[in-house]
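Hi all, a correction to my earlier message: I attached the wrong file for (2Fe-2S)-binding protein. Here's the right sequence:
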Amino acid sequence: MSSPALSPMPSNLPSSEPAAPKRDAQFVRVAETQREPLSFFIDGHEVTALQGDTLLTAVLMHQRHVRESEFSGAPRAGFCLIGACQDCWMRTEEGMRLRACSTLVTQGMRVVTRLAEVTSLVAPVVASAAIANGDIE
Ligand code: FES
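and the right structure:
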């Protein structure tokens, strides 16, 4: 007696093959590939994402980290993906902090991931705030 033939497992993946993964990317997009594209900037380099991507997803589609730790300099890429661990904080070129896993990427957004660039952005902002508060002259 032969065993019954197994039917293929149903899939919710798109019928077309996803694009080949980028060599240095942490994430690979396997679904929802038809959303509208947009462009944004990582460390001054223009890259693409899809409408509705979180900033974390958008950045990790291009590289393996979203920032460098201000304590050790080690690369960080988020952990929980749900806004609980605080591991995915990033900065915009203007120095604004964003939690990447709970912020949607937007057209033209400019973020930095390298500690040296963040330090050069944040120090003047902190100094300006201290001057405005009368803490320093
Ligand atoms: S990945 Fe944990 S808070 Fe964003």
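Sorry for the mix-up. The domain at 37-133 is CATH 3.10.20.440 (Ubiquitin-like (UB roll)).
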